[in-house]
Specification:
Layout: H1 2-19, H2 25-28, H3 44-47, H4 53-63, E1 69-74, E2 77-82, H5 85-94, H6 123-133, H7 139-166, E3 170-171, H8 172-189, H9 202-211, H10 215-226, H11 239-255, H12 266-275, E4 278-287, E5 293-299, H13 302-333, H14 335-350, H15 358-362, H16 365-377, E6 384-387, E7 392-393, E8 400-401, E9 406-409, H17 411-414, H18 434-437, H19 458-475, E10 476-480, E11 505-510
Parallel strand pairs: 2-9
Antiparallel strand pairs: 1-2, 3-11, 4-5, 6-9, 7-8, 10-11
Helix pairs in contact: 7-8, 7-19, 8-13, 11-13, 12-13, 13-16, 13-19, 14-16
Length: about 525
Amino acid sequence: MLWLLIGLVTVVTLLYFYGTRTFDYWSKRGVKHDPPIPFFGTAKRQFLQQISFADIYDEMYWKYPKERFVGYYLTTTPLLILRDPELIKRVLVSDFSYFHSRSLHPLDEVPEPMLNNLFSCEGDLWRLLRQRLTPAFTSGKLKAMFPLIVSRAEKLQLVAAEAASSSAEVDVRDLMARYTTDFIGACGFGIDTDTLSDENSMFRKLGRRIFTQTTRDVVATILKYMMPSMFTSLTFLDPEVSTNTISLVRTIMKQRDFKPSGRNDFIDMLLELKLKGKITGDSLEIKNPDGSPRIAEFEFDDVLMAAQVFVFFAAGFETSSSATSYTLHELAHHPECQKKCQDEIDEVLARYDNKLSYDALKEMKYLNMCFSEGLRVFPSLGYLIRKCEKPYTIPDTDITIDKGVKMIIPVKSLHADPLYWDQPEQFRPERFHPDNVAKIHKHLYLPFGEGPRACIGERLGQMQSLAGLAAILSRFSVAPSKSTIRRPIIDTKVMAVQSVLGGIPLALTARKKIQ
């Protein structure tokens, strides 16, 4: 019995030391932080789904208003929450060679196939994918996609009209998510997902599953961050998500006879890459003895191709639908701004035979201002993350952080700081008037990130979002309904992006006169 007790005490003691082994990291460097607890660090409420990641970083931002940066522990991993715009600029742009990874996975090698995508992969694979995929988002390619966007926008109007006639309120969050999913299916994969007509379509269910954390996901995340080497077989993503995505891609490839179809969509571009067999280029990480970069190469197989399809769908689905629905929410509470949008839309469309087009959308300046302000008030990505790749001394300090430490840029907080924005709690589209944009600090407004790892699909996302907004506002007026909450509640079960709990219910009323 005594030996059993001694053994138990020994195990508990070893576990305690393992679960607290890094907790002197910030105190040794004189960086202010909240006291961590064993295993959880300062992230207990996050893992218990009591608060979102964006909101806990926001809390820390306001708790230490005089600091340039604040320490944090995600389980036993040290994080640094940045508050200084100049330091943020260094991390995202100037000193990018130190911070080129996002490091969403606790291990350097990523065992999950779908996480080898452009958004979450690192090092040489990221660099080569970025170089090869950038041509998919040129102005010419975007303009060629626009007829597909128009067809989805017209269908959005029909579905919205049906919903408005049958109910006193419409969940515009769900409506815009279905529109976004339909758009991604058409422009990305050449598939008619029919998500606008069928809210329970396979694509819509996949979108919900990707961004909602189940109990299984929470347990897997905690174990992988606490003891990553012991739980390599656990995955952040439900294995069914990976299986379904790979199966979908192989089906589309077979339909296209494993070669580009001439549609010039995202799948065609990936098929072109696949036909080349390997992607090669200068290494970001490895040098030859003479200092020149070594040549890096990767096999572009079915699984790597599926990972890019996964992120094209996932990144576009949640961010665009969140941004458009929240913009409608603000316009519902600011009818004077809404009317200005509608007047502009009417005026522009009148010059284009009342048809939405690529050029017409570019002329809707005030609509763009409202969308930009919506992204400031409620950024889809509440924070950005970068990992230190080699020892880095923070400028104007004697603090050196080690490889592996993660940097958090609290976008939500920066967008709401009265130090940088006049009355930030107010929705004021005029902040983004062309005469005022130059006055905005480039590294304080970050809805799409900044630097070499900024969102590659920024212009596509904006174009699709603005088309959806124009389609709704040209036919309908939006107003608060009985269920509308002025400040929507954040869904703590959604990790990567800011999402609202219970949707965004609004009253949609058909406009009496359409010019």
